[in-house]
Every structure is written in C-alpha cells, then in structure tokens.
Write a structure and sequence with these properties.
It contains 21 helices and 19 strands.
C-alpha cells in the first residue's frame, strides 16, 4: 500500500493537503503497524490467541497518526477524533494505541491515560491493554501489571485509567491520552477532566490526545464541540495540520436502511459485526420509530438530536430567521408562563401571532429564569451551560435559591410598559393562584392552561406544522433550542400528544410555555381543537 493510498483511507480527509513541511515516513508508519501485528493478540471471542492483524481502516489510522513527521523529527499529529459505529473494534484499537504510546513511542517517562466518563467505561480499554500484555511474552517480561497501572520499569513509563469522578486529574504530565466514548462525556466534571488532561501535556515535545467514540447527539456537549471542529478540519475551513479527523459515518441525505450505506459507515461490517445483525436492528427501527434515532446514531454513526424524536432539529434550525425584539413591539401577543417546580426553570414566552396577510405562523420572544445561588449546581447536575447562557444574557439569574415570583411579576409589568401588547397571561393552574390574582390586580387578563393531553395536543401539533412550514420564528435562542432538542412527545390512544422529558435532568420549560401561548392564541383566533373536542369526547 502506497503512502497516498494509506492517506486516502481516511474518509473525507487527505492529510497531504495540509501537510506543510511535514513528510510521511513509511518506516515510522510501518513500525507502529507492526507493533500491533507482532505483539498484540486477541484474548477472547473467536479470534482468541490469534495475532491482532489490523484491517485497512485501522492501518490508515495507525500509519497516518505515527507516520507523519515534522521537520524537527517529532510526530506531526498531536490530536485526533476517531468516530465509528458500535461493534467496529474501537476499544481494541484504543488499547493498542495506548500500549504503543507506553512502550514504543520513544518517550522516556511516558504517562499514558485511558479516560472515560465513568470508572467502568475507563476500565474497558485499560483491561484490554492488560490482557494484551498478559498474552505476549515480550510485553509481559518488560511490563509490570498492577491493579490500576501498567508500568515499564526500564523507561519509567506508566499507563493508568481515569474517569470524571477521579480526584487526581490535576498535576499530571500526560504524554498520551486516550478518551473513550466521548459522546457520553456530558457532565461538567467530564469536561473538567478532559481539559485537565489536555493542559497537562504542555511540557511534552510530542503529546498525543486521541478521542475515540461513537457519534453523540447535537446537545451542547464536549463531543459536539470536538466533532464540529473535526468537520471543519475535514472541509478545510480550519487549517490545523496537527489534528487528524477520522470519521466513518453515513451522511445526512443517505438512506439509513441501505446496506451499501451500512458498509460505508462501518468499515468492519462483515468482520467484527455481521450484516445479519444490522438487518435485525434495521427491522426493529422500522417497526419502532422511537428506535430509529438510536439505530442511526449507534450503527450508522449519524449524530441525532434525541432518542425519542418529536421535533426535527434540522427543521427547527431552518426557522432561525433573524428578527429583533424591537420589531415585535406593539403587536398583540400572549404570554405563556411555566412556573418552576423545585428543579425546573421558570419560563416566560411571548407568542406573537402573524396574520394571514403576514404569512401566518408565530414569532416568539423567550425569557428564562434561574436562581443565581444554585446556578452552578444546576449546571453540574443537568450538564448544560447555564452560566454561559446567563453571561450571554439568554438566561436571567434571580437573587436567592428559588425564583421569586414577584420578580417574574415585575418582569411582565416591565415588558408591558415597554410597549409589548400582552393580551393575556396564561399559566398552569398548579401553584399559580396567588400570582394569577396579583397579575389580575395589575390589569392583565389571566387564563389557565393545563399540561395534559387535552390542552396540549392541538397547540403541539400546530407548532409541529408551523416548524415544518417555516412559519415559527424563534431567532435561534439557545435555551429554547436546547429544550426542543431534548423534548419527546407522548401519545395517547386517541392520537393526542403532549410534551415530555426523557429524564428528570432535562428541561423543556421554555417550549412548554411557548405551546401554552400558542394554545391561547389559537383559542382567541379560532384555532384547531384537540381530538377530544373534535370528537366530542369527555375526559373523566
């Protein structure tokens, strides 16, 4: 295989185009490849005891990573994102890369870390590496295996596993870091671990930081940040000769049920995983629409927005037509107000109906409130950047540890005085009686809106239709977008839907408030009823 052929085996990326003064050294590349072939043996499954012979795609990763050399003789690539579907052999490749960096990368006193979001995941790659050492006479003679470390006494090199719950991430001097399954590094402490490991490499002459993972969702995570950067390098938007993207994935416009697409996105199909397995999972995804996103993300390596879809985020982002708050002044609007429980956000959304002459649909102006005293804890628990949103003015932090309803009341008064024509304030009846009375005393029309199937279905379905037809303008508000990305829909036997959270840490409050405002606007303008009303059904 020629140098050019090896390079082109990396999908959508040719490292020769950004190589500058770097050169490809076949000797260095083959040295790394032969390390796998000579010293590593499979330890379980049908290949137990056999040599780890790299497949073509694995050769491309290893040869490019270690074969490209800078003019000073050090390794060109210092960072890499390797993305493949499940059952492609990622963990064994990661373990082999870690061992090469420990034993054969010409680094005295190497510190190699396998890292993951939790301890069990971190130990997967580490334990595979231990098994490789135990299975080979040469490696076992030169390495000492301990419970939590592999040590090479002759060079003073060590390999350890770390997780985001570790308390020893700072003060390290890492030479190589292997981050496993980056898509599940969703908590702030996981990001802290990643940053601590990367910044610990500053004293090394040729550090290496590798993230190896399946695709994640488009929620604001560490994986998404790195994935977007890798795509920019692939496309030539960012010229970073030290970063190697290696992403095998189906493209957005490719059919997820096409076997030819499966083979392209999983180069190990037919080797580490069978075509029959893909066929079974695809059949399941066709029968269960809620499983389609999981199938696409896990087995086609396509980023998805949520596990149980309600809104297509591509359609959502297409509604990001810019407008200013000033443009909305004077127009009639309905204020959906979703008051917080103990953990939820308090959401206020002004919903502005557009007339048919204006093209129909809705514009929204969202406001979101969170107690400033516990914002850091909420960020840690929820895994979303509340502090960043606060600093950007997209989230309003109130004094104390609970949202003061008087603050919300004053905000509504302020908006009204600022020439927003609030026709009605709509609340969920739960826990809102006192505030409702106060708002009525302030001169506002107040209505109540339930959050069950009967009330939510019609405005939810109308919102869906408005989004698909690009008649719902949200201005790209990041908190509202996050709500939409994690929102699921529950459906009853009559075909009605309501918004739902997949798990307790997710927040959909702004979206709920928007639906409440749309529901009241529908009632005021003669909008559609739910299936219950249209069929004259009674809720008992």
């Amino acid at each position: 295989m020629t140098d050019k052929e090896i390079s082109l085996l990396l999908p959508d990326y040719d490292p020769t185009e950004q190589s500058l003064d770097c050169t490809f050294g076949n000797e260095e590349a083959m040295r790394a490849v032969e390390f796998f072939n000579l010293f590593l043996k499979h330890h379980k499954g049908k290949w137990a005891g056999e040599k780890f012979v790299l497949s073509d795609w694995q050769i491309s990763v290893v040869a490019n990573m270690f074969g490209w050399i800078r003019p000073d003789g050090t390794r060109r690539f210092r960072s890499s994102l390797i993305e493949l579907p499940r059952k492609s052999g990622k963990s064994h490749l990661a373990a082999g890369l870690a061992l090469y960096c420990l034993c054969a990368d010409k680094e005295q006193g190497a510190e190699v870390y396998t890292a993951a979001a939790d301890r069990d995941q971190a130990n997967i790659v580490f334990n595979i590496a231990k098994s490789f050492v135990e299975a080979d006479e040469y490696l076992s003679n030169h390495c000492k295996i301990y419970r939590h470390a592999i040590v090479v006494p002759s060079t003073g090199s060590t390999m350890k596993s770390l997780s985001s719950d570790s308390r020893t991430a700072h003060g390290l001097n890492a030479s190589a870091v292997i981050c496993d399954e980056l898509h599940v590094w969703t908590k702030p402490d996981a990001r802290e671990l990643y940053e601590a490991l990367v910044t610990s490499q500053g004293a090394r002459t040729q550090p290496l930081n590798i993230a190896i993972t399946t695709a994640g969702t488009a929620e604001p995570t560490l994986w998404r940040d790195l994935h977007n950067y890798a795509r920019q390098v692939q496309e030539g938007v960012v010229n970073d000769m030290a970063f190697m993207p290696a992403i095998w994935a189906a493209k957005k416009d490719e059919q997820w049920d096409d076997p030819e697409v499966w083979a392209k996105c999983n180069p190990s199909l037919g080797t580490t995983v069978s075509v029959e397995f893909y066929e079974q999972e695809c059949t399941k995804a066709k029968a269960l629409p809620s499983y389609q996103n999981a199938f696409r993300r896990l087995y086609l390596n396509q980023p998805t927005e949520q596990l149980h879809r309600w809104i297509s985020m591509e359609a959502w982002d297409a509604c990001e037509q810019p407008y200013t708050a000033e443009e909305l002044k004077g127009r009639a609007c309905y204020a959906g107000l979703d008051l917080s429980s103990t953990l939820d956000l308090t959401a206020l959304v002004l919903v502005f109906p557009r007339t048919e002459d204006e093209g129909g649909g809705f514009d929204v102006l969202p406001y979101c409130f969170v107690p400033n005293e516990n914002i850091a804890k909420r960020q840690h628990d929820d895994g979303v950047p509340y502090i960043q949103w606060r600093d950007e003015g997209k989230l309003i932090a109130t004094d104390g540890n609970i949202v003061d309803y008087d603050f919300i009341r004053k905000k509504i008064q302020e908006l009204h005085k600022d020439h927003y024509n609030i026709r009605e304030v709509i609340l969920d009846r739960w826990n809102a009686t006192q505030l409702a009375v106060q708002l009525e005393q302030d001169g506002f029309e107040v209505g109540f809106f339930g959050q069950g199937f009967r009330s939510m279905s019609a405005p939810c379905k109308q919102l869906e239709a408005m989004i698909m037809s690009k008649k719902f303008r949200h201005g790209g508000h990041p908190v509202l977008r996050f709500n939409a990305s994690v929102c699921a829909a529950e459906e009853d036997a009559a075909g009605n839907i309501k918004l739902s959270k997949r798990k307790s840490t997710e927040r959909i409050d702004l979206l709920v408030a928007a639906v409440m405002g749309i529901g009241r606007a529908n009632a005021a303008t003669g909008g559609a009823d739910s299936v219950y009303e249209s069929q004259d059904m009674e809720i008992l």
